[in-house]
TrEMBL record:
Protein name per Swiss-Prot or TrEMBL: cytokinin dehydrogenase
One example of a Gene Ontology biological process annotation: cytokinin metabolic process
UniProt keywords, alphabetically: FAD, Flavoprotein, Oxidoreductase, Signal
Cofactors named for this entry: FAD
Keyword Oxidoreductase: yes
MF-aspect GO terms: cytokinin dehydrogenase activity; FAD binding
Pfam family, any one: FAD_binding_4
Amino acid sequence: YKFIQSPMDFGPLNFLQTTNTASLDFGRILFNSPSAVLRPQSPRDISLLLSFLSASSYSKVTVAARGAGHSIYGQAQALDGIVIEMDSIPSNVVIREKGEDEAGFSYADVSGGALWIELLEESLKFGLAPRSWTDYLYLSIGGTLSNGGISGQTFKYGPQISNVLQLEVVTGKGEVVTCSPNKSSDLFYAVLGGLGQFGIITSARILLQEAPHKVRWVRAFYEDFSTFISDQELLVSMPNLVDYVEGFIVLNEQSLHSASIAFPAHLDFIHKFQSKGSSSKVYYCVEFAVHDYQTKGTDVEQVVEEISRLLSYLPSHIYSVEVSYFDFLNRVRMEEMSLRGRGLWDVPHPWLNMFVPKSGIKEFRDLLMENISSDDFEGPLLIYPLIRDKWDMNMSVVLPEAVREQVVYVVGVLRSASPASCSTHCLNNLLHRHRHVAETASRPHIGGKQYLAHHPSTAHWQDHFGPRWDQFKARKSRFDPLSILAPGHGIFPRLYAPSH
Ligand SMILES: Cc1cc2nc3c(=O)[nH]c(=O)nc-3n(C[C@H](O)[C@H](O)[C@H](O)COP(=O)(O)OP(=O)(O)OC[C@H]3O[C@@H](n4cnc5c(N)ncnc54)[C@H](O)[C@@H]3O)c2cc1C
C-alpha cells in the first residue's frame, strides 16, 4: 500500500510498521499481523484514514480499532490491514454533576480508548460512579460498549450499553457523528453491542450515580444446582435490597482458592473436597453484595441478614466481608497480580461465554460438565442471571431468542491454558470442545447464544443473529458499506473492485 510505504503521501498521518501489541490479545490464540499501525492523536486522524479508505473502491485495506486488546479470538486484529491503537489518544474524563446543566443527572464524557478504571478513579473524586460494570476494569470504554459489558450489577441496571447517553463515533465512511437516542439514533443503537462493525467510538457519555463508601460482599455455598439457581433468581428479584449478584461453580479446591484472592475471608470448608475422596464433587457459590452509603438509619448488616434468611445455602456456609467500593469493583486486579506473579496471566485463554435462557440452564450445565474435567480446570467458571427487560433489543447485542423468558443466564468458562501444563495439542482440544459446547447449546433445546462470540464463517454469524441478521446487515451497508471495520470477527468480507 503506497501510502503506508511513504506516509508523506498520506497527509499528516504517521504509520508504524508494527508494535508489540498490534497482533496480540488476551486470548493468545491468534496472532494476525497488520501491515501498519496508526497511533492517532485525535478522532480527526481516525476520520482522515477512514475517509481516505472509503473513497477508493480499489483498496483492500481493513481497519481494526484496538482498545485494551482483551479480546480472545483476534477480534481487534487486522490481518494485513491497519490497527488503530486507541490508547494513543490521551484519556479524557470530564465529570458533570447533577444540576450543572439541564440534564437532570450526573454523567461523564470519556474518550473511547480510556479504561473503565480511569473513569472510576476520576468519578470517585466527585463521590460518583457508573452504575454498571464489568468484573475487570482494565478494559476500554469503546471495547466493552462494542460488546455489552456485563457484571453483577446487570440484573439491576442493564449492561453497560444500557447506561450510555450519547456517543461520538467515526463511521466506516470517515464521518464524525454525535449520536444518542434522539439524534442519529440508528447509528447510536447500531454501535452499542455492534462488535465495532459500524464505527469507532471516540467518546461516550456515561450515566453516573452516587457511589457507596463500602460494600457488604457475601458468598454462600451450595451442593445442589437447582437450589443454587433458585436462590440466584430470588436475589435478582429483589433489586431494591440487592446491588450485585453473581455466582460460580467450584470445580476443585484450586478453583475455590483462585476465586478467593480478593475475598478477605477464610473459607474453611476446603476439607470437604478431600473428605469426599471424589474429584467429581462440585459446589456452587452464590455471590451477592449490598452497597453501604453509611447513611444514618440504615444498617447494611441487618439488610444482609434479612436477605440471607431467605436463602437455602449449606448450613453455616456463608461468608460476609466489608470492603471499600473501589476494592470491590477492582477485585479482579488482585487476581491478575497474583497470576502475573506466578507467570500465569500472559498465557492462552480459550474462553467460552454463553447466554442461556432459564429453560435451558440445567441442560447446559450437564453439557458443560460432560465436556470439562474438574481435575485440570484452571480459572473461574461464572454463572449468574440477568433480566431481559434491562436490555434494549434495538441495540446490536444478541440475546437468546426465547423472548418470553425474563431470566437469562450468563455462563463464563474463563479458562487459562498455561503452556507448562497444556501443549498446543491440548489447547486445540480445549478449543474444539468449547466449539462443541457452543454449537450444541445453540440448538433449540437449549437455545443459547454466545457472548463475545467467535464464529468461523458469515453463515454462522447469520445463524447467531437469527431474525436480527437483516437489520445488522442493513446497518453495515449504511455505516461501513465497504466493510472496512473490525475484520477480526470475520462477519463481512471486505468489498473492493479488483484491479485485474
Ligand atoms: C480479564 C478479563 C475480564 C473480563 N471481564 C468481563 C466482564 O466482566 N464482563 C464483560 O462484559 N466482559 C468482560 N471481558 C470481555 C471484554 O469486555 C471484551 O473482551 C472487550 O472487548 C474488552 O475491551 P478491550 O478494550 O480490550 O477490547 P479490544 O479487544 O481492544 O476490542 C474488542 C472489539 O471492539 C472493537 N473496538 C475496540 N475499541 C473500539 C472503539 N473505541 N470503538 C469501536 N470498536 C472498538 C475492536 O475492534 C474489537 O472488535 C473481560 C475480558 C478479560 C480479558
